[in-house]
């Protein structure tokens, strides 16, 4: 099977600080990973993805790091803003499998 | 691009009625769509994989006769909660992947969910 979990259920940061959200996955065959942001009452919104042949990928204010050795994934948000407050999920997929497995989620609270 | 629309966004109905939820891919073709259920403050639980033109694949523990899925076209999948009861109240979310133009490593794009409340 597959399990994807997060180390911290909630994270509070000051506006302007950097945020780091962590995720662990169990199946070493996972080859594609995504971070999603979910605001209250809405569906998950794609943030950034990374394939297993990479260990880092950067987007606008976000960076995803992948450590396949320890099966760990992280999302870094630079200069966190109040609009970043949401629940963040990581998801992992195995090659040739169509399904994604989601972590339990981390709630990010940004304090003004 | 890659917009998924879900309708309705909120449903309140009496126990025993059936409720249909629609999921549409607006600007891409989706041979596969996914239906999730989410309880408050919990993660997304995959219910089933909806395959265009064939039967849906249900996850273990999900009742096929309770949650009917139809994927009759490349842009529309429907989930019908039959004879709904209060315990079926939840947030139902669909997603789709643009595998036609993008290949296997493409993200799922989600609808905004349907909040179902059974009285």
How would you describe this structure to a colleague?
The complex is a heterodimer of chains A (112) and B (119). Chain A is mainly beta and 112 residues long. Chain A contains no helices and 11 strands. Chain A has strands spanning 4-5, 10-14, 19-25, 30-38, 45-51, 56-58, 62-67, 72-77, 86-94, 100-102, 106-111. In chain A, strands 2, 4, 5, 9, 10 and 11 form a 6-stranded mixed β-sheet that branches. A 5-stranded antiparallel β-sheet of chain A has the order 1-3-8-7-6, with no helix packed on it. The radius of gyration of chain A is 13 Å and the shape is globular. Chain A starts with a strand and ends with a strand. Chain B has 119 residues and is mostly beta strands. Helices cover 3% and strands 50% of the residues of chain B. Chain B contains 1 helix and 11 strands; from the N terminus they run βββββββββαββ. In chain B, strand 7 (67-73) and strand 8 (76-81) form a beta hairpin. The longest helix of chain B is centred in the C-terminal third of the chain and has 4 residues, at 99-102. Chain B is globular, with a radius of gyration of 14 Å. The mean pLDDT of chain B is 90. Classes of the chains: A mainly beta (112), B mainly beta (119). The A-B interface holds A 31-32, 34, 36, 41-46, 49, 51, 89, 91, 93, 95-96, 98-105 and B 4, 6, 32, 34, 41-44, 46, 49, 93, 95, 97, 104-105, 107-113, 115.
């Amino acid at each position: 099977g597959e399990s994807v979990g997060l180390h911290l259920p909630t994270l509070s940061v000051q506006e302007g600080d950097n945020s780091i959200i962590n995720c662990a996955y169990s199946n070493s065959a996972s080859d594609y990973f995504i971070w999603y942001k979910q605001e209250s009452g809405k569906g998950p919104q794609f943030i950034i993805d990374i394939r297993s042949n990479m260990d880092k990928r950067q987007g606008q204010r976000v960076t995803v790091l992948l450590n396949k050795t320890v099966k760990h994934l992280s999302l870094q948000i630079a200069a966190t803003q109040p609009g970043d407050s949401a629940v963040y999920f990581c998801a992992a997929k195995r090659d040739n499998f169509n399904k994604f497995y989601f972590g339990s989620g981390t709630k990010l609270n940004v304090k003004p | 691009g890659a917009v998924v629309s879900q309708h309705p966004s909120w449903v309140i109905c009496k126990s025993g009625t059936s409720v249909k939820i629609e999921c549409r891919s607006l600007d891409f073709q989706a041979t596969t769509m996914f239906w999730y259920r989410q309880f408050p403050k919990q993660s997304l639980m995959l219910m089933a994989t909806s395959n265009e033109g064939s039967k849906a694949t249900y996850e273990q523990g999900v009742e096929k006769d309770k949650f009917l899925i139809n994927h009759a076209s490349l842009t529309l999948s429907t989930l019908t909660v039959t004879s709904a009861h209060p315990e079926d109240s939840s947030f139902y979310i669909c997603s789709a992947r643009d595998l036609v133009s993008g290949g296997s490593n493409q993200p799922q794009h989600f609808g905004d969910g349907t909040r179902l409340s059974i009285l």
